[in-house]
Input
Amino acid sequence: MQKPFTIGLIQMRMEEDGSANLAKAQAMLEKAAKQGVQVACLPELFRSPYFCKTEDHTIFDLAESIPGPSTEALAKTAKQHGMVIIASLFERRTAGIYHNTSVVLDADGKQAGIYRKMHIPDDPLYYEKYYFTPGDLGFKAFDTKYGKLGQLVCWDQWYPEAARLTAMQSAHVLFYPTAIGWHPAEKEEFGVAQADAWETIQRGHAIANGVYVAACNRVGFEPSPNKEGRGIEFFGNSFVADPFGRILAKASSDKEEIITAVCDPKTQEQTRRWWPFFRDRRIDAYGGLTERFGK
Amino acid sequence: MQKPFTIGLIQMRMEEDGSANLAKAQAMLEKAAKQGVQVACLPELFRSPYFCKTEDHTIFDLAESIPGPSTEALAKTAKQHGMVIIASLFERRTAGIYHNTSVVLDADGKQAGIYRKMHIPDDPLYYEKYYFTPGDLGFKAFDTKYGKLGQLVCWDQWYPEAARLTAMQSAHVLFYPTAIGWHPAEKEEFGVAQADAWETIQRGHAIANGVYVAACNRVGFEPSPNKEGRGIEFFGNSFVADPFGRILAKASSDKEEIITAVCDPKTQEQTRRWWPFFRDRRIDAYGGLTERFGK
Output
């Protein structure tokens, strides 16, 4: 059985300047490595402010190829520290096809795999359907030096189907790089409930699948370019839950920080023996899940 | 749009005598009706102590046909109070086929439908695979006078697939009659985490599906007939969550009581507009859910 390994979530505030974000990410990754982190995850689209707050053709200039400048820089960081790095990037696949993509760089700096975000949101100030072509690689978990790592991104976290299909690939952990925040006008009335629902449904995935779940969000207020709704206050609260749904580590709602937790495949084994949900799935009766809705 | 309606969960302690349990259920249902409850749900297998703590051929004598004595008695209660009643029964379908079945009795006393528990557990002191043939009716929601009511039972609550397929039938509420408790030897170390996981995963179903969730458990310590592991302390904690996953009402862990909550289809409508998860499901990519596990 795989040995226990330490994961670290890099909760960042993004600067306007893309180079500054890469430099900050590398500095925080180095710090994480010194703390014993073996698998590190960056927030969603960490190279820039969250650009989907408006629809603007020129923003596609931010996209890059994979492999490309970000993965080359981070591959060096990964190799230098012998650390797996999960990086969420704005991928330019070809002219007119862009994806919201997670790249897994193994501890030797080699690319272990990529996952292209499957569920694409579209909501005021989160105009992602404009930027991102839905992923066509399916749900993915990749073998790395330390463990098998399931890759999902943000909006995927609201879909039990995504968690299940990724866990079914023997993932030890489901990683969710995230960019979720409060609309200032909604925060007072719904802020607590929104952050709580976000955490609860992901803890639910941990429980349903007997798998660790790690969600890495950004922090900080980012104004809206066109003043629509003022902007978004990204609410941090990055966390790691164990296969029983218990929170092992949790970050603040407003500070840059690194949180760490140990993932032990033995805990996963024991949890699934106690609550053997996979044994009893009614796979003969789940065909309707490929329908949009009932009659 | 359907009007708001009030649901009530009847959290009971079971007596040895089956008639006493029926009488107590009817008394509590009457009390609930006087409190304005329009849809009431009883705990799983409310006619008897939880009999699956041991494997014994003679216990099949407890099973009854549907319609049968329990539904006849409860149909009268339903009609008398103009109240929908959800009753969980040990169903004898024919010689050698028994089910763990939920019956929905409409406000006029007529049977709105039955659901036969799809996911059957088997765990020390919960030897359900011995007693219950897995349901073959699929997942079900039934139209009633007050709303469309999704029917699930206990172990189903650990399966996001079951919640999804039931919600996809336009259910306003997912009901889970339940019999879950602590093994005395595990309670101190794991009791809190177990009850919390049980609630969390079901709140997750509410959030994922934008649907009300109502879980009705029993309370009380029931000894094990063969002294194995002493017995089970059923932990109550019956609750109703709204489509945002917020707890609207919650019962104690050890007392008989009725909890009530209002279900408003407008809240469901608004929640799904704000978080339109159904819109973005990747139904082209969910085929693997009918597999047992990955390669």
Notes: DSSP finds six helices and 15 strands in chain A.
